[in-house]
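User: For documentation purposes, I need each entry recorded in a consistent format: the amino acid sequence on its own, followed directly by the corresponding structure tokens. There are two entries in this batch. Please keep commentary to a minimum and don't merge the entries.

Assistant: Recorded as requested. Entry 1:
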Amino acid sequence: MSSITNVGLLALLLCALPPTSRAETKTAKLRTVVIDAGHGGSNHGAPGLASVDEKRVTLELAKAVAAELSRRQITVVMTRTDDNFLTLRQRSDIANRLDADLFVSIHANASRDHSRRGFETFVLGQKGIEVDAPALRAGSGRQRPGVSENLSRMLDDLERGLAQTKSIALATQVQAALAKVRPNSKDRGVKQDSMHVLLGATMPAVLVEVGFIDHPVEGPELSRADVQAAIAGALADAIEISLR
């Protein structure tokens, strides 16, 4: 379905909403970002060097990004603030309940031969938007008082499609910002895939792999305070630009 068709259909569906729901749509809170620290609890994520697991690095980075955005007067909610387990669905549900403007999930990568390095950012591919999200995330969209379940699902699907352009723009900004602060790493580009943590989100959403935690050089760097501060600043820059 083309974006023009999506926009037209969305307009028709919005007209079908009760007056209170349309008013809530117009007055949705602006500049609210949900930062998701990947993994946590029993889910350690990718194993790094010296017993440094992905879940620890992502939490430290998420806290740093949240602090930086808060200094810029941007409302931030973290999906987790300690070492606890959340399902992938619970993470995007938090963003949907808040009617957030952006959802950013932070991760660290790993490879079989421990030789790869670099950063990359994922957005949902077309299959994720049109097939996987509706199949796996039914009932996990935004809260819409007074709206039937079927209509709410249709609106969720349309919002995912309409958010795709902004998701790609955010991912592009993330890559550009990280390239400035990580010149010795590798820009692996923006990629599309059915990343499960993104499937439920009805707003622009990206998953960023900030580097390879198992690389002999890049892995230890990702645990350094100065490197984490630089990455956090870059992610905050990209997010702030995307909120304008």
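Entry 2:
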Amino acid sequence: MGFIKDHTVRIGLLGVGTVGTGVARILLTEQKMLHARCGTSFVLNSAADIDWSSDRGLDWSGVARTEDAYVVVDDPQVDIVVETIGGLEPAGALIARALRNRKHVVTANKALVAARGKELFTLAKQHRVDLLFEASVGGGIPIVKGLREGLVANHITAIYGILNGTCNYILTKMHMDGLEFSDALRQAQEKGFAEADPTLDISGGDAAHKLTILASLATSSLVDLGQLHVEGITEIESLDIAFAKEFGYTIKLLAICRGVDGKLDLRVHPTMVPNTHLLAAVSNELNAVFVRGSYVGDTMFYGPGAGQLPTASAIVSDLVDLSRDLTLREGHRFCNRTIDPSSAATVMPIGEITNRFYLRMHTKDAPGILSEISGVLGSERISISSVVQLEAHRVGDLVPLVILTHEAPESAMERALARIGQFPFVRDKVMRIRLFTDGA
């Protein structure tokens, strides 16, 4: 690998499923446009997949096809390896082998980058090649490039992201159509916005992977996925949606990254976002990332967060970046890389973070109940901003009681909820949702 005289970059593709087929489609049909825009000829040299029996609607003439991915990774003709297999293995082993073979790698594999970034970025650094991952966050939204290059002059002070299209679609349908969670999930599956097993999405795990990557870029250091506080949306009920509307909020699964006293406030959880904020208007399967920079101020990146062609588009943008590396002398790299695998970010424990809270509980309709609950909150120095008890939502002798609080430490709220949950007049678990707190 080194200076490429004919400005031709040869690509090896691992995995020709949904996203891989999209990448192949662009490389096979848009060669003239790409050459006109960046002066490089991109050639799909080889592709590996375990099953070539299905018709992908492409002309594979001139492309060496194989069922053995290591043939592609070890091919001396391949300059850049594109991985669209997904999962931790065999994708991780294949990427590691490609980096050791001194090949640049482009991946859409958010789980792998989030879980094994230290190992893979260290390998890339040791072998003087790059591992790029624009497609791992936000599908076709250029958020990685935005942080890596467009906002390189800024200290990133806050990131608020709607990073999972499945959850956003479900919550949108609950808000707009009055659906219960299970019905909205079923509709998302029928429309192809949710997997048959949606656990990773609705648990908040997918958004956590993406937040780990964004936070690593924002801080130029590696974030440990295991240190994030993560909650999903499975406990959100239509009743919570109704109360959110009453208070002027929209519930979103929000990924949050903020700098607080030299540490990172990193979490994923349902959040009540004021209807006046741009993020509240992001609906259905779309994604958005709100970024605050020290010099640029507030910016928002918005668009399709997944899908064959948006994700493939992001992968090709990385190929174009790397083509510049390959047309320069080896070691003189064009792209700005901002993750240092030897540096680790310090994450703030969830208990130290302060939030405003929405609390919803079902209680008996009897005198003195509110004073007992407020007494517990007061003993933890948690002050109440609003209280609502709606007879319209009564079920038998139980009435939903909703409390909004001022800012309080998570640790104090945890202690208060443990005590409130022991009251005999409180039925079921107390529902807690954080309110959006910008901290600007």
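Summary note for entry 2:
Residues 1-5 have pLDDT under 50 and may be disordered.
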